[in-house]
Design a protein that fits this description.
about 190 residues, about 60% helix
Length: about 190
Protein backbone atom coordinates (compact mmCIF):
# COMPACT_ATOMS: atom_id res chain seq x y z
CA UNK A 1 0.00 0.00 0.00
CA UNK A 2 2.21 2.71 -1.30
CA UNK A 3 1.60 6.17 -0.01
CA UNK A 4 -0.52 4.99 2.92
CA UNK A 5 0.88 5.57 6.37
CA UNK A 6 1.38 2.39 8.37
CA UNK A 7 0.46 4.17 11.59
CA UNK A 8 -3.23 4.02 10.65
CA UNK A 9 -3.22 0.55 9.13
CA UNK A 10 -5.06 -2.20 11.01
CA UNK A 11 -5.49 -5.51 9.16
CA UNK A 12 -8.74 -6.23 11.05
CA UNK A 13 -10.48 -3.21 9.54
CA UNK A 14 -12.87 -3.69 6.68
CA UNK A 15 -13.01 -0.06 5.62
CA UNK A 16 -9.76 1.84 5.23
CA UNK A 17 -11.46 5.20 5.63
CA UNK A 18 -12.40 5.70 9.27
CA UNK A 19 -15.97 6.65 10.02
CA UNK A 20 -16.40 9.96 11.81
CA UNK A 21 -16.97 9.78 15.51
CA UNK A 22 -19.94 11.73 16.72
CA UNK A 23 -19.44 12.83 20.27
CA UNK A 24 -23.03 13.82 20.73
CA UNK A 25 -23.43 14.10 24.48
CA UNK A 26 -27.08 14.71 25.25
CA UNK A 27 -26.64 13.99 28.92
CA UNK A 28 -29.53 12.84 30.99
CA UNK A 29 -32.10 13.76 28.31
CA UNK A 30 -30.85 11.20 25.79
CA UNK A 31 -33.69 8.77 26.39
CA UNK A 32 -36.36 11.45 26.24
CA UNK A 33 -34.97 12.88 23.00
CA UNK A 34 -34.88 9.40 21.47
CA UNK A 35 -38.50 8.73 22.39
CA UNK A 36 -39.64 12.08 20.95
CA UNK A 37 -37.59 11.49 17.79
CA UNK A 38 -39.21 8.07 17.36
CA UNK A 39 -42.64 9.64 17.81
CA UNK A 40 -41.82 12.33 15.24
CA UNK A 41 -40.71 9.68 12.74
CA UNK A 42 -43.90 7.71 13.41
CA UNK A 43 -46.05 10.79 12.84
CA UNK A 44 -44.13 11.73 9.70
CA UNK A 45 -44.54 8.21 8.32
CA UNK A 46 -48.27 8.11 8.77
CA UNK A 47 -48.77 11.72 7.69
CA UNK A 48 -46.94 11.05 4.42
CA UNK A 49 -49.11 8.09 3.51
CA UNK A 50 -52.33 9.74 4.64
CA UNK A 51 -51.43 12.73 2.48
CA UNK A 52 -51.13 10.43 -0.53
CA UNK A 53 -54.41 8.69 0.32
CA UNK A 54 -56.25 12.01 0.63
CA UNK A 55 -54.74 13.30 -2.61
CA UNK A 56 -55.83 10.08 -4.30
CA UNK A 57 -59.37 10.37 -2.97
CA UNK A 58 -59.68 13.91 -4.30
CA UNK A 59 -57.97 13.31 -7.66
CA UNK A 60 -60.03 14.30 -10.66
CA UNK A 61 -59.42 14.37 -14.41
CA UNK A 62 -57.94 17.47 -16.03
CA UNK A 63 -60.43 20.29 -16.56
CA UNK A 64 -59.74 20.54 -20.28
CA UNK A 65 -60.36 16.77 -20.81
CA UNK A 66 -63.06 15.63 -18.35
CA UNK A 67 -63.73 12.37 -20.22
CA UNK A 68 -60.30 10.93 -19.31
CA UNK A 69 -60.58 9.06 -15.97
CA UNK A 70 -57.98 9.26 -13.23
CA UNK A 71 -55.54 6.41 -13.96
CA UNK A 72 -54.88 5.13 -10.44
CA UNK A 73 -56.06 5.52 -6.84
CA UNK A 74 -54.79 4.43 -3.43
CA UNK A 75 -56.71 1.26 -2.62
CA UNK A 76 -56.74 -1.21 0.25
CA UNK A 77 -53.77 -3.04 -1.27
CA UNK A 78 -51.70 0.09 -0.69
CA UNK A 79 -52.59 0.08 3.01
CA UNK A 80 -51.42 -3.50 3.68
CA UNK A 81 -47.61 -2.81 3.78
CA UNK A 82 -48.10 0.02 6.28
CA UNK A 83 -50.34 -2.15 8.43
CA UNK A 84 -47.71 -4.92 8.42
CA UNK A 85 -44.96 -2.48 9.39
CA UNK A 86 -47.12 -0.99 12.12
CA UNK A 87 -47.90 -4.43 13.58
CA UNK A 88 -44.20 -5.30 13.43
CA UNK A 89 -43.30 -2.10 15.25
CA UNK A 90 -45.86 -2.79 17.96
CA UNK A 91 -44.62 -6.37 18.44
CA UNK A 92 -40.97 -5.28 18.60
CA UNK A 93 -41.58 -2.57 21.17
CA UNK A 94 -43.74 -4.76 23.41
CA UNK A 95 -40.84 -7.14 24.02
CA UNK A 96 -39.05 -6.79 27.33
CA UNK A 97 -35.34 -6.25 26.67
CA UNK A 98 -34.30 -8.16 29.80
CA UNK A 99 -36.22 -11.18 28.59
CA UNK A 100 -34.20 -11.22 25.36
CA UNK A 101 -30.94 -11.41 27.30
CA UNK A 102 -32.33 -13.82 29.84
CA UNK A 103 -31.11 -11.72 32.76
CA UNK A 104 -33.86 -12.01 35.33
CA UNK A 105 -35.73 -14.98 33.95
CA UNK A 106 -34.43 -18.45 34.69
CA UNK A 107 -36.22 -20.38 31.97
CA UNK A 108 -34.80 -20.58 28.49
CA UNK A 109 -38.35 -20.98 27.17
CA UNK A 110 -39.12 -17.31 27.94
CA UNK A 111 -35.96 -16.19 26.16
CA UNK A 112 -36.78 -18.37 23.17
CA UNK A 113 -40.32 -16.99 22.91
CA UNK A 114 -39.12 -13.39 23.20
CA UNK A 115 -36.60 -13.93 20.42
CA UNK A 116 -39.26 -15.60 18.29
CA UNK A 117 -41.60 -12.63 18.68
CA UNK A 118 -38.72 -10.26 17.92
CA UNK A 119 -38.07 -12.18 14.70
CA UNK A 120 -41.78 -12.09 13.80
CA UNK A 121 -41.84 -8.32 14.40
CA UNK A 122 -38.82 -7.68 12.20
CA UNK A 123 -40.20 -10.06 9.57
CA UNK A 124 -43.46 -8.11 9.49
CA UNK A 125 -41.56 -4.86 9.09
CA UNK A 126 -39.33 -6.27 6.35
CA UNK A 127 -42.38 -7.71 4.61
CA UNK A 128 -44.10 -4.34 4.78
CA UNK A 129 -41.08 -2.63 3.24
CA UNK A 130 -40.76 -5.28 0.53
CA UNK A 131 -44.48 -5.04 -0.19
CA UNK A 132 -44.36 -1.26 -0.51
CA UNK A 133 -41.38 -1.41 -2.87
CA UNK A 134 -43.10 -4.06 -5.00
CA UNK A 135 -46.28 -1.96 -5.09
CA UNK A 136 -44.27 1.06 -6.14
CA UNK A 137 -42.66 -0.83 -9.00
CA UNK A 138 -45.59 -2.96 -10.15
CA UNK A 139 -48.46 -0.55 -9.70
CA UNK A 140 -46.96 2.90 -10.23
CA UNK A 141 -43.64 2.80 -12.10
CA UNK A 142 -44.27 0.04 -14.66
CA UNK A 143 -47.48 1.68 -15.88
CA UNK A 144 -45.60 4.93 -16.50
CA UNK A 145 -48.07 7.20 -14.72
CA UNK A 146 -47.38 10.93 -14.37
CA UNK A 147 -45.37 12.03 -11.36
CA UNK A 148 -48.43 13.16 -9.41
CA UNK A 149 -49.65 9.55 -9.34
CA UNK A 150 -46.28 7.86 -8.67
CA UNK A 151 -46.14 9.97 -5.52
CA UNK A 152 -48.64 7.53 -4.01
CA UNK A 153 -46.10 4.71 -4.32
CA UNK A 154 -43.20 6.81 -3.06
CA UNK A 155 -45.28 7.86 -0.05
CA UNK A 156 -45.97 4.20 0.72
CA UNK A 157 -42.26 3.32 0.65
CA UNK A 158 -41.30 6.36 2.72
CA UNK A 159 -43.97 5.44 5.27
CA UNK A 160 -42.47 1.98 5.75
CA UNK A 161 -38.89 3.26 5.91
CA UNK A 162 -39.85 5.88 8.51
CA UNK A 163 -41.76 3.27 10.55
CA UNK A 164 -38.68 1.03 10.55
CA UNK A 165 -36.43 3.92 11.60
CA UNK A 166 -38.92 4.87 14.30
CA UNK A 167 -38.86 1.32 15.68
CA UNK A 168 -35.05 1.28 15.73
CA UNK A 169 -34.80 4.68 17.42
CA UNK A 170 -37.40 3.70 20.01
CA UNK A 171 -35.63 0.39 20.64
CA UNK A 172 -32.32 2.18 21.25
CA UNK A 173 -33.96 4.86 23.39
CA UNK A 174 -35.72 2.30 25.56
CA UNK A 175 -32.53 0.28 25.95
CA UNK A 176 -30.66 3.19 27.49
CA UNK A 177 -30.85 3.89 31.17
CA UNK A 178 -33.04 6.84 32.03
CA UNK A 179 -32.63 9.42 34.74
CA UNK A 180 -35.19 7.78 36.96
CA UNK A 181 -34.35 4.12 36.32
CA UNK A 182 -33.09 2.27 39.34
CA UNK A 183 -31.62 -1.19 39.35
CA UNK A 184 -33.02 -2.86 42.45
CA UNK A 185 -31.35 -6.22 42.96
CA UNK A 186 -30.88 -8.16 46.14
Amino acid sequence: MAGYSNSYYDPRRVCLNPFPEFNLNLGRHRRTIGIYLAGALFALANWTFLDAAILSAHAHPPYDEPQIPVPVHVEFVDWIPGICSLLGMIIINFIDKDRLRGDDYGTSEAVWRARLFLFIGFALMAGGLAGSVSLLVLKYIMHDYPEQFTYYGYANVSQNVALMLSAVVLWIAQSSQGEYDYNLTL
